TrEMBL record:
This is Integral membrane protein. Residues 289-308 have a biased composition (Pro residues). SUPFAM superfamilies: Multidrug resistance efflux transporter EmrE. One of its GO terms (cellular component) is membrane. It comes from Streptomyces agglomeratus. GO terms for molecular function: magnesium ion transmembrane transporter activity. Residues 282-347 are annotated as: Disordered. It is found in: Membrane. The keyword Membrane applies.
Amino acid sequence: MSALALSVLLALVSAVAYAAGAIVQERVAATTPSRPYAPLRHAAWWAAVALNGLGALLHVGALAYGPLSLVQPLGALTIVFALPMAAVFVRRRAGAAAWRGAIMASAGLAGLLSLTGTADAQSLGGGERLAVALVTFGAVAALFLVAQRVHRAVVRSILLATAAGVAFGIASVFTKTVAVDWTAAGGLDGPNAQLPSLLTIAGLAAAGMMLSQAAYRGAGLAAPLATVTVANPVVAAAVGIMLFGEHFRYGATGTALALGCGVVAAGGLILLTTERLGAHAERPAGLPGVPPQASAPPMSPQPAPQPAPAAGATRTAPAAPQPRPRTRRPAARPHTRTQTVTPPALR
């Protein structure tokens, strides 16, 4: 197997692992609503953590054997893989609007990443790392605080998923920086020299995992997953363009095409969001209609008046009071009278 084929295979398996982890996260969020961020006692949540970790390792392996322009767009297939996998394994089928939004987001992201050129391996200085870390944690905290004030579950989930994507994207930037420094020094620096960057990576990865877990609560699978999948590489690419000297291919034409791909990806996210908002709008409309149907038998005592016409026969006087709850006691009196009459009949 050639290096390029191995890279494609690793990238596809990585996308499948990410999709499986997202499906498990969504199911955990649906079953443990009281612990939206880190259900540590839930075994399935640790399985999702393992799947996401496996996807990250496979993605790094794919980058080691293949070019970034090929591996990064294949990662966008996570959304496309997640929908049929959810339909098969957890019986969660997506509608036509969800499929259109997922395909639009994946195609736009793949085109955007394929147009992003690479530059020579560069690293961030100490001041740049501190500035990027502070800005990132500030942006993630701001998105989190805004999400807490939003009452609509879908909008809150999109904000949390965006914060998770930002955290994951900047964690990738710091990972690249550490890898460049490690390679340039030949491994002589050791982990102690990179300890602040490693702690930043760990903090951002943990924050991204908890925020993405909370994003799946009450918003389904497609919309939060698409938001995280798009926000992660877009943020990393933006930092690469601003700080690492990366650029779009084909000059002004490539830049225009990249902007068009960004619009397509954003349109897919908007379509997924509106699809979830429409689904949540239909549920409240349907829920009030269910109780009247369920309460129709108790509330409509038409069967109760039916004995009343039967009670119109004056011959059976005890039958008339039977439909009325208050007159059930008098209905028992004739039975007591018959009991008092029977002893004379025995004479």
